[in-house]
Specification:
heterodimer; A: 108 residues; mainly beta; seven-stranded mixed beta sheet; 11 strands; 49% strand; B: 120 residues
C-alpha cells in the first residue's frame, strides 16, 4: 500500500504569511496527487490536482509543486479564510486512493 | 452546478446495516464521465475512500471494506447508495458522497456529509 505522510501535522501562522505544507509518498506516484482544504463541519474542497494544476475558482495564492516523492502546497499571503486543515490524496494506486493525515493551519 | 446530498439514519445499532443515499443534481450518474464515490472520515482522523459506482451500475470497492460494502445506483432517481453491513463502533464516522474524475481520480464535488453513529 502507498502511505502518505504530511508535515507538519499542525502549524500556526499569521495573516499575510506564506505557508508551506509537505506531503511525502512512500513510493513513486508520478504527479498523481491532489490537495484539499477542509474547514470545521464542512466537506473537503479540491484545491490542486495533478500535483500543480489549480482547480477552477480556487485562489491563485494556492500552488502545488512536486520533487520526486515530495509534494508541497504553498499558500501565499495567508488570508483569514485559509485557516483550515489541508489533506493530500494520491491516486497513483487508483481506483483505490488514499489520503494523508492532514495538516491543521491555525492562528498564531 | 453539481450538487450532492447525503441522506439516511444518523444512528445505527451494532451488527446492523448502515444505509445512506446520495442524491445528485447538475450531472447524471449514468453518464460515464465520472465515478460516484463514498468516502468516510473517522472522528478526528483522516479520510478513507470506500468505493464508487460508474455508468450507474458498475462498482469498485476498497479491499479493506469490500466484504461488507455494497454501492448501487438508481439512474431513474439520479441517486446512488451505500450499504455497510455488520457495523461496529469503529464505523462511526462522517460519510461523504463525492464526484470523482474518471481519469485523474480527484474529487471535485462533495456532499455536505452525513454523520452516522453506531451505538446500541
Amino acid at each position: 500500500d502507498i502511505q502518505m505522510t504530511q508535515s507538519p501535522s499542525s502549524l500556526s501562522a499569521s495573516v499575510g504569511d506564506t505557508v508551506m505544507i509537505t506531503c511525502r509518498a512512500s513510493q513513486n506516484i508520478n504527479s498523481d496527487l491532489s490537495w484539499y482544504q477542509q474547514k470545521p463541519g464542512k466537506a473537503p474542497k479540491l484545491l490542486i490536482y495533478a500535483a500543480s494544476s489549480l482547480q477552477g475558482g480556487v485562489s491563485s495564492r494556492f500552488s502545488g509543486t512536486r520533487s520526486g516523492t515530495d509534494f508541497t502546497l504553498t499558500i501565499r499571503s495567508l488570508q483569514p479564510e485559509d485557516f483550515a486543515t489541508y489533506f493530500c490524496q494520491q491516486s497513483y494506486s487508483s481506483p483505490v486512493v488514499t489520503f494523508g493525515p492532514g495538516t491543521r493551519v491555525d492562528f498564531k | 452546478q453539481v450538487q450532492l446530498q447525503e441522506s439516511g439514519p444518523g444512528l445505527v445499532k451494532p451488527s446492523q446495516t448502515l444505509f445512506l443515499t446520495c442524491t445528485v443534481s447538475g450531472d447524471s450518474i449514468s453518464g460515464g464521465s465520472h465515478f460516484w464515490s463514498w468516502i468516510r472520515q473517522l472522528p478526528g482522523k483522516g479520510l478513507e475512500w470506500i468505493g464508487y459506482v460508474y455508468y450507474g451500475t458498475s462498482t469498485y470497492y476498497n479491499p479493506s471494506l469490500k466484504s461488507r460494502v455494497t454501492i448501487s445506483g438508481d439512474t431513474s432517481k439520479n441517486q446512488f447508495s451505500l450499504m455497510l453491513s455488520d457495523v461496529t463502533a469503529a464505523d462511526t464516522a462522517m460519510y461523504y458522497c463525492a464526484r470523482e474524475s474518471w481519469n485523474l481520480f480527484y474529487f471535485d464535488f462533495w456532499g455536505p456529509g452525513a454523520l452516522v453513529t453506531v451505538s446500541s
